[in-house]
Amino acid sequence: MPEGDTLFRIAAALGPALTGARVVALELPRSDQPCRRLVGRRVERVEARGKNLLIFFDEGTVLHTHLRMSGAWHLYRDGERWKRSEATASAILAVPGYVAVCFRAPVARLLRASALRGDRLLGGLGPDLLGGAFDAAEALRRLRALDEVPLGVAVMDQRVVAGIGNIYKSELLFRTRLDPFAPVRAYSDEELSAMLDVGRRLLQSNVEPRDPPGMYRGSTAHYAATRTTRAGGDRRKPVSVYGREGRACYDCGAAVQMRRQGTMMRSTYFCPHCQPTRAAPPPSGPAPSAP
Questions:
Q1: Entry's InterPro entries (predicted)?
Q2: Which of 90, 95, 119, 184 has its CA 20 to 30 A from that of 160?
């Protein structure tokens, strides 16, 4: 699943082509929502919110897509051959000179900008780790509300912070040497705040442009493939633990392990030596009454 840095870079790639341009055509092939009213309107901006991409139009409508596991945005110049079948398109947005196509997105819909705050998919998102005004105190408060949840599950909850997916979850907890399977309450506010800070810096380090000015990339996969989460940004060894089950930890030599977590059984990669088991204190509660 594309994570926050990938969506940020997709928005940065689509923005220059779309922002300020008049809509020539807009189709949502898998939806019965009317799109015709947006032809002739202008694109105001393209914005990433966590793992969501939002395209704002000047009359107050927003195109929302969520790629989940299978989706991808491509950007083509007029007349350029598409790299995927049109039958798999979820959204097609044409402006003079360009066509932006979202393929295989489970979520592709229109809604009013005024409804974003109360929307069931977007309204409950936690602070965006790549947002310009990241509210660290609010993120910590939301994390603390999940004190009994394993840290590796809680940090993936988009209602806590928006933008962390499976890769960053594993890499972040390895970098901060935290046990993914201990409950949130096993950690101090200082440890959790430091973890969130490292997560923000990790994502920020992967949104810098890696292409020459004026170039664009059509495939979402390009942005994931150029991600590095190891200290020093070694492109030959871009990740520390993710996807490396059974291989030696670069830092200590122990075998990297993988366990599944949460109701969705998402994979968590970790080093048992660098991330030792954390014993949680007993839950706090009212003192027992005297007999």
A1: DNA_glyclase_Znf_dom_DNA_BS, FPG_cat, FPG_N, H2TH_FPG, Nei2_N, Ribosomal_uS13-like_H2TH, Znf_DNA_glyclase/AP_lyase
A2: 90
Give Cα separations from 51 to 160, 212, 290 (angstroms). Answer: 13, 25, 51
Give the C-alpha separation, 69 to 33, whole Å. Answer: 23
CA-CA distance, 181 to 112, in Å (whole number)? 40
Architecture in CATH of 136-208+241-270:
Orthogonal Bundle (1.10)
Report d(CA 6, CA 12) in Å as an integer.
Answer: 10
Q: Residues in the chain with pLDDT < 70?
A: 1-2, 208-227, 231-236, 283-291
21, 40 Cβ separation under 8 angstroms: no
Every domain of the chain and the residues it spans: 4-115, 136-208+241-270
Burial of 85 (0-12, 13-18, 19+ CB in 10 A): exposed
25-27 vs 89-95, strand pairing mode: antiparallel
Alpha-carbon gap, residue 68 to 195, rounded angstroms? 25
State which CATH number among 3.20.190.10, 3.10.129.10, 3.40.47.10, 1.10.3860.10 fits the domain covering 4-115: 3.20.190.10
Residue 216: the pLDDT is 45
Closest CA to 160 of 110, 118, 195: 195
Provide the residue type at 138 as one letter: E
